[in-house]
Amino acid sequence: MSIEIRNISKSFDSFTALKDISLKIENGELISLLGPSGSGKTTLLRIIAGMESPDPNPDSQVLFFGEDVARKPVGDRKVGFVFQHYALFKHMSVFENIAFGLRVRPRSQRPAESAIRDKVHSLLNLIQLEGFGTRFPKQLSGGQRQRVALARALAIEPQVLLLDEPFGALDAKVRKSLRDWLRSLHDELNTTTILVTHDQEEALEVSDRVVVMNQARIEQVGAPDEVFHQPASEFVIDFLGNVNVFHGRVNQGQAVLENHQTSISDPFVPAGENANVYVRPNDISIDRTPTGKSSMAATVTRINRAGVHAKISLELTNKEEIRVDITMEQLMELHLQLGDSVFVHLNKARVFVPDYTI
Amino acid sequence: MSARKIHAGNNDPFWVRIIVITISVTFVALMLVLPLGVIFWEAFRKGGAAYLKAFQDRNAMRAITMTCLAAGIAVPLNLVFGITASWAIAKFNFRGKGLLIALIDLPFAISPVISGLIYILVFGMQGWLGKWLEGHGIQIIFAVPGIVLATTFVTFPFVARELIPLMQEQGSEEEWAAISLGANGWQTFWRVTLPNIKWGVLYGVLLCNARAMGEFGAVSVVSSNIRGGTNTLPLHIDALYNDYNSVAAFAMASILALLGVVTLVGKNLLERKIEQESINSLESRTTKVSQ
Question: DSSP characters for A226-270?
Answer without folding.
Answer: HHHHS-SSHHHHHHSS--EEEEEEEETTEEEETTSS-EEE-TTPP
